[in-house]
Write a structure and sequence with these properties.
It contains 15 helices and 16 strands. By secondary structure, the chain is α/β, with parallel strands linked by helices. The chain has 3 domains: 267 residues, Rossmann fold; 125 residues, Isoleucyl-tRNA Synthetase, Domain 1; 47 residues, no CATH class. Helix 1 packs across helix 9 and helix 12 runs antiparallel to helix 13.
């Protein structure tokens, strides 16, 4: 049985679903105003691991939003909408920005072998649902109006502190988490609906009972999650940075409106950090999947790197660590190729095979303990088990890990540039010019080609 760390209870809780036939899971998706960086994508990898592990026992109805409006640059409900900011930066419409970067996000998402959600919910396509939720909160006395929008009065929701802790809420001071706003009743109050500014025309705005404007960021997730998954969700995921504000506000909105428990298991992933702190777009110079590809790495190298650290621990990124992950993954692929060459397809030790699968599943069921699961994998791969047994185990394990271990890659033709580089490298090796040989290997790697030197000469394959 899966046990998952629940941010709400601060314990590893045994998972049970409300519906005996399927589990429900909502994940906070991208704000599509720029490319996703690999820190963002670490969150989606751990969520994919959770979906895969849950799916081993039951179907999962998985909903993920796409924030294409309403996410302001400040948690204080001030600053520009990130979509409008992206449009101004690139001289395009906000709608074009959203479409372009959503496409790029899913290219990265797919390249990391993350399974697409059951439902992808765009904020701009659910304005009606958000307005309806704000109206319900208004009717129940949770809202008030200021000059710039409709706000949620957090003092009306006594359990506002439940997710993040009372000490955090009690310790809020003006200027600490939020900027001072004369019209806000409480420092923690947040916008449900923002009025369009009078001094400039927004590209994304809608009529509402309160005036022309656009939704707050927090309201979109509550509205869309409940539309597709009901008033109470099994699991809600996101990055650890969402706990204090975004997810705390989601709970206040949803439970204020329905009077029911919103989420049973809150699951959060930790940051990917660089040497100078967590990766963020605001700091500039962030690393994307495309950056990794240009340096000769496969997106699956990064996925393997993420598997080596628990999702609730910070992971420090370095190219040295990524290189080690790449070499380990490629070493595993080479072992698999050898196993395929020698297998007769007949399972030799059913009991031993099942024991390995059980140990692997137990590791994944223990709060997604991927490092332990990988240890089980490597122990079995290095054992004296028959080739067919190992391949069967690897197929099973890969259903959880998502590394495409046994998939046959389409051998696309070499571009002329690569053919020339391989010929030059072969010549350099013959002359024992290893410096040039290594330089040519790096150039081939940048083209997505892995080269291995064997007693029979150099061999290559697509990464």
């Amino acid at each position: 049985m899966l046990k998952i760390y629940n941010t709400l209870t601060k314990n590893k809780d045994a998972f049970t679903s409300l519906n005996k036939d399927f589990a429900t899971m909502y994940c906070c998706g991208p704000t599509v105003y720029n490319y996703a960086h690999i820190g963002n994508l670490r969150t989606y990898i751990f969520e994919d691991l959770l979906v895969r592990t849950l799916s081993a026992d039951m179907p999962v109805k998985h909903v993920m939003n796409v924030t294409d409006v309403g996410h302001l640059t400040s948690d204080a409900d001030s600053g520009e909408d990130k979509m409008e900011l992206g449009a101004a930066r690139e001289g395009k419409s906000a709608w074009d920005i959203a479409k372009f970067y959503e496409g790029k996000f899913f290219e990265d998402f797919d390249s990391l072998n993350c399974r697409r959600p059951t439902v992808t919910a765009r904020a701009t396509e659910h304005i009606k649902e958000m307005i309806a939720l704000v109206k319900k909160l208004e009717e129940k006395g949770y809202t008030y109006k200021t000059s710039d929008g409709i706000y949620y009065d957090t003092s009306k929701f006594p359990s506002y502190h439940n997710l993040v802790g009372r000490a955090h809420i009690d310790g809020l001071k003006t200027g600490a988490r939020v900027d001072f706003n004369d019209e806000k009743r409480n420092a923690s109050d947040f916008a449900l609906w923002k009025f369009s500014p009078t001094d400039k025309q927004r590209q994304m705005q809608w009529d509402s009972p309160w005036g022309v404007g656009f939704p707050g960021w927090h309201i979109e997730c509550s509205a869309m999650a409940m539309k597709y998954l009901g008033d109470t969700l099994d699991i809600h995921c996101g990055g650890i940075d969402h706990v204090a504000i975004h997810h705390t506000n989601e709970i206040a909105q949803a439970e204020g409106a329905t009077g029911k428990k919103y989420v049973r298991y809150w699951v959060h992933g930790e940051f990917l950090i660089m040497t100078n702190g967590k990766m963020s777009k605001s700091s500039g110079g962030f690393v994307t999947v495309q950056t990794l590809k240009e340096k000769g790495y496969s997106p699956l190298d990064y996925r393997y790197l993420c598997l080596g650290a628990h999702y609730r621990t910070q992971l420090e990124f370095s190219y040295e660590a990524l290189t080690f992950a790449r070499n380990t993954r490629l070493g595993l692929m080479e072992r698999i190729a050898a196993l395929k060459a020698e297998t007769d397809g007949k399972i030799q030790d059913e009991a031993g095979l099942n024991a390995a699968k059980t140990a692997f599943k137990e590791a994944m069921d223990d709060d997604l303990n991927t490092s332990k699961a990988l240890a089980v994998l490597w122990e079995f791969v290095k054992s004296r088990a028959a080739a067919a047994d190992k391949l069967d185990f690897l197929k099973y394990a890969d259903g959880f890990l998502g590394l495409s271990l046994l998939e046959e890659e389409a051998q696309k033709p070499l571009p002329k540039e690569a053919e020339e580089l391989l010929a030059l490298r072969k010549e350099a090796r013959a002359k024992k010019d290893f410096k040039t040989s290594d330089e040519l290997r790096d150039k081939l790697s940048a083209l997505g080609i892995a080269v291995k030197d064997t007693p029979k000469g150099q061999e290559w394959r697509w990464k």
